[in-house]
Amino acid sequence: MPLHQQSKTNQNIDSQTEEKSIRHLLEDFKASMKRAFHEEDKIDQFCSTRGLPPAVLKELMSENPLALCIPKEYGGFGGSVRDNIAFVSAASYESLALSLTLGINNALFIQPVSKYGQESAKPKVFNQFLNHSCMGGLMITEPDFGSDALSMHTSFTQKEGYFHIRGKKHWAGLTGMADFWLLTARKRTDTDSLMRDIDMFICDVNAPRQNIVVEEYFENLGLYQIPYGRNHIDVYIPEEQRLIPRTNGIQMLLDLLHRSRFQFPGMGLGFIKRILDEAIAYKIARCWQQTSVRLRPGPTPAHKVTGQFHNLLSFLPEVGRDCRHRKRFVVTRPRSEYHQKCYFRYDAGIGTVAAATRRCQRI
Ligand SMILES: Cc1cc2nc3c(=O)[nH]c(=O)nc-3n(C[C@H](O)[C@H](O)[C@H](O)COP(=O)(O)OP(=O)(O)OC[C@H]3O[C@@H](n4cnc5c(N)ncnc54)[C@H](O)[C@@H]3O)c2cc1C
Question: For a FRET experiment, which of 165, 218, 289, 315 has its CA 20 to 30 Å from that of 202?
Answer without folding.
Answer: 218
